[in-house]
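Deliverable D2.4 — example input (structure tokens):
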């Protein structure tokens, strides 16, 4: 008996999912387009208190993140120290080193700002949900993936501002550095800590509502991206870049992902990691977090109209890493399924 066709919107969503896309990527494109046509709607001149709204949203995002942290799984995963060291070095050393290597190719003033945005991307921690999902699809070590993605996010609270401060000279003044530390404390550290302390009591609540909490995270990111691009468009930041430059930047983000993926895969094989740990290394070590990037950009570059440009490489990398990683994860997952059959 022929099954009835699903409604057109559901078929479209299913098609996007198979391609590694979801509504969030389309929404990102939508808010950037809205900011382009209506920059006054989300700029500093808007009567809407966007700064207060996004500040509250950021605090809640990190509180709910802490609420979902399982300390038992994290403790169990700490034993595999070689894997953890490789992932964290790839995230916070390999990426920045690659960014520093390409620094001479960005000589002009506009090129320097673009390079700063690329370095900011390279200084960010890994994602949590995307990394874990991709490791699961590829048949990797799931507890180790949860541990590494979570630890990366926590380390990023300190290492991302440190790296950008040393290389990009953000918050170099004593007062600025102290102000940034206070902002990070109130918006990131304390909410995460409160969530972790309440994990045992409200973890079940967070698990029941994890889909809604993920939507809340995404909506907060969309608001941050929208207001950042409104300010950038209002100040004419993007007028100095041609469409060809944006296309080249996208190609560069693809190349960056593939180079990092290949280097981590080669290192994990040289270290004779089991296949399940190799999968954790490449998928956790090659990701960059849009959540942390959006939040950190608003904290590290608060008075800059170029915040939209600072986020541009990250947005491109975010979209491309999902598409590329989902394809690779499905390929590796099919290999895991076939291996027992071939051995029979």
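Example output (designed residues):
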């Amino acid at each position: 008996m022929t099954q009835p066709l699903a409604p057109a919107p559901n078929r479209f969503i299913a098609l996007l999912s198979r391609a590694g896309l979801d509504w969030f990527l389309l929404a990102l494109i939508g808010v950037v387009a809205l900011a382009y046509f209506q920059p006054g709607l989300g700029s500093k001149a808007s009567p809407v208190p966007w700064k207060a709204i996004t500040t509250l949203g950021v605090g809640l995002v990190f509180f709910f993140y802490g609420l979902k942290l399982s300390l038992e799984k994290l403790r169990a995963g700490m034993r595999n120290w070689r894997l953890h060291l490789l992932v964290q070095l790839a995230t916070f050393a390999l990426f920045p080193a690659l960014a520093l290597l390409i620094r001479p190719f960005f000589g002009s003033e506009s090129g320097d700002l673009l390079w700063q945005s690329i370095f900011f991307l390279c200084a960010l921690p890994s994602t949590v949900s995307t990394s874990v999902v991709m490791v699961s699809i590829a048949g990797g070590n799931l507890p180790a993936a949860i541990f590494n993605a979570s630890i990366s996010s926590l380390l990023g609270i300190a290492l991302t501002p440190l790296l950008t401060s040393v290389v990009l000279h953000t918050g170099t003044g004593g007062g600025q550095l102290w102000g940034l530390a206070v902002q990070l404390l109130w918006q990131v550290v304390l909410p995460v800590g409160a969530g972790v302390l309440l994990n045992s009591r409200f973890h079940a609540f967070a698990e029941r509502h994890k889909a809604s909490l993920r939507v809340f995270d995404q909506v907060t990111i969309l608001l941050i991206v929208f207001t950042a691009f409104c300010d950038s468009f209002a100040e004419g930041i993007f007028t100095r870049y041609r469409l060809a430059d944006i296309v080249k930047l996208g190609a560069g983000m693809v190349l960056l992902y593939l180079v990092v993926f290949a280097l981590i895969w080669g290192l994990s094989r040289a270290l004779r990691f089991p296949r399940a740990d190799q999968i954790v290394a490449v998928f956790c070590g090659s990701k960059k977090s849009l959540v942390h990037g959006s939040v950190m950009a608003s904290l590290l570059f608060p008075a800059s109209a170029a915040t939209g440009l600072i986020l541009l490489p990250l947005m491109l990398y975010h979209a491309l890493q999902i598409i590329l990683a989902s394809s690779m994860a499905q390929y590796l997952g099919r290999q895991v399924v076939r291996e027992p059959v071939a051995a029979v």
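Confidence is low (pLDDT under 50) at residues 172-177, 339-344.
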